[in-house]
Amino acid sequence: MTRFIDVGAAQLGPIARDETREQVVDRLIALLHQGAARGCELVVFPELALTTFFPRWHLDDGEGDEIEGDTTELDSYYEIEMPNTATQRLFDEAKRLAVGFCLGYAELTPDGHRYNVYILVDREGEVVGKYRKVHIPGHERHEPWRKFQHLERRYFEESPDGFRVHEAFGGTIGMAICNDRRWPETYRVMGLQGAEMILIGYNTPLDYAPDPSQNPLQAFHNHLVMQAGAYQNGTWVIGVAKGGVEEGVESLAQTVIIAPSGQIVAQATTIDDELVMARCDLDMCDRYKKTLFDFDRYRRPDMYTAITDGPPSLVVAAIETESTKLTPEDAVIPASTKEQAQ
Amino acid sequence: MTRFIDVGAAQLGPIARDETREQVVDRLIALLHQGAARGCELVVFPELALTTFFPRWHLDDGEGDEIEGDTTELDSYYEIEMPNTATQRLFDEAKRLAVGFCLGYAELTPDGHRYNVYILVDREGEVVGKYRKVHIPGHERHEPWRKFQHLERRYFEESPDGFRVHEAFGGTIGMAICNDRRWPETYRVMGLQGAEMILIGYNTPLDYAPDPSQNPLQAFHNHLVMQAGAYQNGTWVIGVAKGGVEEGVESLAQTVIIAPSGQIVAQATTIDDELVMARCDLDMCDRYKKTLFDFDRYRRPDMYTAITDGPPSLVVAAIETESTKLTPEDAVIPASTKEQAQ
């Protein structure tokens, strides 16, 4: 029997600073209805889908790396439980429609930890998986030279859990958030656990302040990394964006559904709320997992130790130590220093 | 001072089974001259550039996984020293022109080991780096159902050395061969050593027997993996092909030079001997290495242990053991088994 999941990728347009969760949940429910009408059993929302992307502002009084002083507005963007008063309707509607969903939000734990999370909710409205963002981009303290801030490293801790997969919707499903998608390790760690579908939500400003030469390449890079991750692991990738101009900042839209071949099979064409869907054949994964990317047969884990050795300085030191063990025949001949031609 | 390398990517058309090394070296020297005329200081040739791609034939008498019986023709495709009588002219001409090169060939060591290798030769004609292929694709024994064989796993051992980089041509240069380019670990292990340019030669048949649905995607996959590897590591990638119909087998051409942005900046348009060149600004690497992909700041090596844990079965076991240490709050809620909607 062919296994497939009918998936809706539910892109969101801007969420204003003064938009309430109730207003946003209305939009999410409207997208859930669109998904149900098209036969979706899973609708995927983006990262931080309940509020505006608040890391663009310095919202506390601290001048160092730590949050300090009045955190009233900052805290207002986090959820302390899920579901909660504002989101219960979404869970109820999901159960009524028998459509599961994946939702991103900011989590403030009872003991004061702050995480950027993604939850997977099944067709009965139950949370069956939770992921905390591993790769936190941006910066720790206010940088006044930027047109807008990207203070994720101030407002979120790095996940202590890593990447796991979940048996749900008849398949093996993983989750990642935004910057995670740029790192091949993200897909690989889940690919090694047999991931057949990876759900990725993102908020990506089109203006990358540290190197504006990357700005015109944002859409290219976005698809490049997700297509490569899908192909190299034989997995579906559902990439779901926020788009449009939110509080003066323009975000990448370009929501996509990517097959294990790396091909884009569905893509949003607006910068607003928009659902695109695809029937995702999970057995298609094996065309790659059991041939070219048969990990057991072809991978060389012993050759990859640099990847887990720590920072690059340690990696280089480890490799140099290793080199001293080589026989003269195998040793790398040191390159002579050359004049560079102009 | 801006650092750059003027690089020529020297694609080769088919090499016939009865073509001599002397004839091939004439072609390599012609490409070297083209490179010199365009100001190149480094010309990169493809994988196994001295002979036809012999793994397409079962050339010994063994029925199992091992080479047996008469190996006269098989052995004729390997080099037992480098330079040798046939290739000395190439080294001499490189020195005379002050143009370095990178060359792929089959190596038979004095103690009987067989490797698929790539060497880096500097502008004085000296070998400054040697790489043995890490990822060996294809199969170990004759498979008569195939239109042609891909017996690399019979004819080549896996490299025991791994991926290293070399200080040469004013930069930090790594090498990889053919199937290596499909694995993100290849680029990452060299990226962690500071690679600014990765040279990759390949022979890729357009007909992939284990899954012909991949055939129309060969050119897409080829560029996808090299562009992602370049971008995700902030490195130049020089991908050099054999093209055309060689002994009845059609090979992917599509030689490219790729910038650290992932952009293709030069591409061959024929399926024959053809040199394309680009001025590669090595300092461009830092636009990525020091921003989005600042490895020291943003990578999470502790989260990647699955990548070096061994085969997937071990990875899953290790992760499950880890999960038992979680608090109930953090634990993943097991997904209930669901009926799959058709």
Describe this structure in words.
- Chains A, B: One of its GO terms (molecular function) is N-carbamoyl-D-amino acid hydrolase activity.
- Chains A, B: Its EC number is 3.5.1.77.
- Chains A, B: Keywords: Hydrolase.
- 2 copies of one chain form a homodimer.
- By secondary structure, chain A is α/β, with parallel strands linked by helices.
- In chain A, the strands form 3 sheets. In chain A, strands 1, 2, 3, 4, 5, 6 and 15 form a 7-stranded mixed sheet that branches. Chain A has a 6-stranded mixed sheet with strand order 7-8-9-10-13-14, covered by helices on one side. A two-stranded antiparallel ribbon of chain A has the order 11-12.
- In chain A, α5 runs parallel beside α6.
- The longest helix of chain A has 17 residues.
Provide the descriptors you would attach to this structure in a database record.
homodimer, 342 residues, alpha/beta, Nitrilase/N-carbamoyl-D-aminoacid amidohydrolase, 7-stranded mixed sheet, 9 helices, 15 strands, 23% strand, disordered C terminus
Topology:
The structure is a homodimer of 342-residue chains.
Chain A: E1 4-11, H1 21-37, E2 42-44, H2 72-76, E3 78-79, H3 88-97, E4 100-108, E5 114-121, E6 127-132, H4 152-155, E7 165-168, E8 171-177, H5 184-191, E9 197-202, H6 218-233, E10 236-241, E11 244-246, E12 249-251, E13 256-258, E14 264-267, E15 274-281, H7 286-289, H8 295-298, H9 312-323
Helix pairs in contact in A: 1-3, 5-6
Oligomer: homodimer
Q: What would CATH call the homologous superfamily of chain A?
A: Carbon-nitrogen hydrolase
Number of separate helices of chain A: 9
CA(first)-CA(last) distance of chain A: 63 Å
How helical, in percent, are the residues of chain A? 10-25%
Describe the main β-sheet of chain A briefly. 7 strands, mixed
CATH architecture of chain A: 4-Layer Sandwich
- How large is the radius of gyration of chain A? 22 Å
As a percent range, the share of strand residues of chain A is 15-25%
Total domains of chain A: 1
Count of extended strands of chain A? 15
Average of the residue pLDDT scores of chain A: 93
Low-pLDDT ranges of chain A: 324-342
- Given helix and strand content, the structural type of chain A is alpha/beta
Biggest interface found: A-B, 94 and 92 residues
CATH fold-level name of chain A = Nitrilase/N-carbamoyl-D-aminoacid amidohydrolase
